[in-house]
Amino acid sequence: MRIRWRVVVPVATVCTAALWWMASPASTPPVQALDPVAQASVGAPAPRDVAPVASAPRRAPFSAAGLDDRQARLALWRQRLDRAKQTLAMYQAATRYPFDSRPASEHADQWLTHQVVTTDAPLRLPGTGIVPNLRVHTTQQKVFATGADTVLLTVTATDDNGAVLPLRVLSSMAHSPQDTGGGKAAPLAPMVMQPFVDDGSNGDARAGDGTFTARLDPAAEGFGNFSGLIRTELVLQSGEQQGYVAFDVVYAPQAPATWTGSVHDAMRDGSLDFILGVDVNQPGRYVITGRVDDANGKALALVTFNDELGAGARQVPLRVYGRLVRDLKPALPLTLHDVEGFLLKPDAYPDRALMASLDGPVATSRKVAPGQFSDAPFSSDETQRYLAEYGKDVAQAQQQLAQLQGSPARP
Fold first, then answer.
1. Same domain, residue pair 214 and 305
2. Whole-prediction pTM value?
3. pLDDT by residue (tens digit) across 303-362?
4. In CA terms, which of 6, 58, 186, 195 is 20 to 30 Å from 24?
5. 278 and 330 both lie in a single domain
6. Is residue 222 left, alpha or beta, with left meaning phi > 0 and alpha meaning psi from -120 to 50?
7. Contact 156/214 with Cβ under 8 angstroms?
8. Does 141 lie in the same domain as 128?
């Protein structure tokens, strides 16, 4: 027993000392708390911050940093206000006249009617390279033809400096390239030889000048019952070189509507209407365009009718808007001239059927005092919606600026 206690007592003493040392605060390492992300990943709540991380310093409203931020916001909203006012003003200016009565200055490309189509390209055959120093110049009187219309076609060979070169027309054929789905020519479309001459006849301007001319006459050449594309294809030779040229004309044998010859003018709602009589054979949407000059021959307005017309006798108004007259101050009376029209054929080729054009002066208005024209800008449901939205943008920018400047918003 003495021996047993001699062993147990020292062992117990050592264990007690070890337990006391492990429980001592000096020996306990500090607990490192998990960051919030780690705590969330193990499902434990995030520890309370004993010393929270310092947040970004708040800028005092009159500190240097606060003033810089305020000036930047003021500059931004001033830019937005300028842009909103500019957009509003531009829309107001663009819509003060309706789309169907616009200043001639906006449509210089449409002022000259029957513009000749011209091309100038190197001589070549399909599938081959171009011939150096040899060019082909062509002209085509019009692209669309109706009824008894004819179309003059010309071709000339030149070098790169524009000097005329000798030319031969080896072959010329007028036909329709359209097919019926089986690779055959469209029905009622003949294939006819189209003679090109340089002898001063059949529309040729000057004999022996190197320019070869043909007059395509669809109604007289077997296309009287055909409606569609007529292509005139030429094989040319200049010296030892050959090339290919083609002209395309869209033809309709019958006009969808004809002019009755009735024309008069009337003042309506402060605007001047030129009213033309039309006999409609094919009902549908018609686009009819005329040009208006003042008493001195100065171009004033492009006027357009774009609406549905039923079959039979109809009246087509071409309006010169009152505000346009008040703004541009033309010499009165006004003259309508060079009127063109066509039936629009959506989802079809060709997409239109032409009426015969009224070339030259068509009608001159009565003498109207300038004060009889209205100075009211054009207005419609669409323009009112857009003006309201653009006005909201201006008002919002003004309100933001007023708040930043510390003053009430100005209307």
1. no
2. 0.71
3. 999 999 999 999 999 999 999 999 999 999 999 999 999 999 988 878 888 998 999 999
4. 6
5. yes
6. left
7. no
8. yes
Per-residue model confidence (pLDDT) at position 47: 44
Q: Which amino acid is present at 45? A: P
What residue spans of 217-329 are helical by DSSP H? 322-328
Q: Is 133 left (phi over 0), alpha (psi -120 to 50) or beta?
A: left
* Residue 181 DSSP label: S
| Domain membership flag for residue 82 | no
Residues 365-377: pLDDT tens digits?
A: 998 999 999 999 9
SS3 (DSSP) at 280: strand
Q: Are residues 321 and 225 in the same domain?
A: no
Nearest to 360 by CA among 383, 344, 384, 336: 336
Please identify, among 221, 237, 252, the residue that sits at the C-terminal boundary of a domain.
252
Residues sharing a CB contact under 8 Å with residue 188, sequence separation 6 or more, in sequence order: 225, 226
Regarding whether 264 and 243 lie in a shared domain, the answer is no
Residue 96 CA, distance from chain mean position: 20
Q: What range does the domain containing 365 cover?
A: 255-372
Are 302 and 204 within one domain?
no
- Residue 202 has phi, psi (to 5 degrees) of 55, 40
Q: Among the three residues 230, 252, 274, which one is the final residue of a domain in this structure?
A: 252
SS3 for 211? strand
With a cut of 50, say whether residue 50 has pLDDT above it: no
